[in-house]
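Appendix B, record 7
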Amino acid sequence: MKGLRRTRKYVFLWDTELISFLNGPMKWQKKIFLALIVICTVSLLLHQGGHFTWNMEGFRFGCSHLSPGSKLKHTNIVFLKTHKTASTTMQNILFRFAELNNLMVGLPVQACGHQFCYPHPFSSHFIHQHTLRPNVITNHMRFNKTALQRLMPNDTVYITILREPASMFESLFTYYNRHCMSFRRVPNGSLEAFLAEPTRYYKPQEVDSMYAHNTLTFDLGGEKDRPTKDFAYAHNFFAEVEKTFSLVMISEYFDESLILLRHLLSWDLEDILYVKLNMRTESSKKRLSPGLPEKIRAWNSIDAYLYEYFNASFWLKLSDLGLDCVAKEVQLLRQAQERLMRSCFGGKMPLALPAAEIKNKELRPWQPSDKVDIVGYDLPVNISLEAQEHCFKYILPEIPYTRILLHSQSLLHRRKYQNRPSQKSHTLQHHMRTTLPRHSQVHRSQPARSVAQSPNSGTGSKSTVKQSEGTTKQGL
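Structure tokens (predicted):
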């Protein structure tokens, strides 16, 4: 879609009394004083990049007939974070939205690390007790519709994201090459060798085998090893996914997906701003030789059908919203993003850095192996403290952000209950499940909550987990 030409605009809304004051008779001192006020205002906007306080009127020009306007923002959300689909960037958007609007984010217990004991089907037992009764859930899990519906409010909106299977599988193969046995046993780590005889290397019951076959289907709670030609299963599975998820985003059209998300949830422009996270360097990517994409899609046939189905429905949603207005909103989003990044990085566009070159250890992304370089960002020292505080969370990787959120929400939990009489643990657990706030919408002017940036808690490691709750017949 073609966007509008990028321009920087500042809109000044003048009070009618002020206009009369300016046009009427006055002493020259007053004129100089007002002129200084105008100059200072313009200087402040230019210094801050004009993005810390957004003027939403310009954004409403995109899809003005469908603009959220004065509607309350929807806040009860489950985002199924699929693997290697730009889902970490989307998770960061949700983390920041939750903090800004004082929402509870359901986070994993320490035994699960930063994921909900993946690849086990999700269970409420995996939720840390200090984050029970959540408004938002977004860490990696294997989807379990029944367990989530028991935990979340009835008006929860379910969202996920898909990526074209060929490019996704190349990313999975490279990223998990040292962790997935199906990939590790391939000679010389050759993707071509694996695809020539996938059943020679793939063992369905092995740990981490889900990265090697129909990963999207598995993440959605489906059966990754169904026969390739089992179209009846695929049809029923897709129908259940479509029934459950209000929006299936498409990674290749991430900005357009965010516009659909904005309208679905009645969000504003600042709610969907982002900086790309968890990216590989170009040298870490393998170019797919002719014929490989077809082999990948044939091996991951359910994922391929799934992507084709929801890519088609995605474009129907865009058409319903209006392709022209979506293109305008995408352009406005990108303009706002450029202002954000220039203000965060000293007036320049950010340069992604190898982890070893990032001075702030909290901002270093996790490296899956010595053959894969995941880049991140460091904030320049010459920006203001306000800019540093504002920009820090945009570039914070998943694992430290999860740890920071858990720390801050645990502090809130302890402050709430530290002065209460001691109770039996199960009584306290029941009390938490029934009394914590469960707002599903927020006013657009709700103040932000301060969050600690130096948590003491770690991420933990995997351990034996409790029996998960039941699933539907499609595994959702």
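Remarks on this record: The beta strands are 73-74, 77-80, 105-106, 136-137, 157-162, 247-250, 279-280, 353-354, 374-376, 441-442. The chain is about 40% helix and 5% strand.
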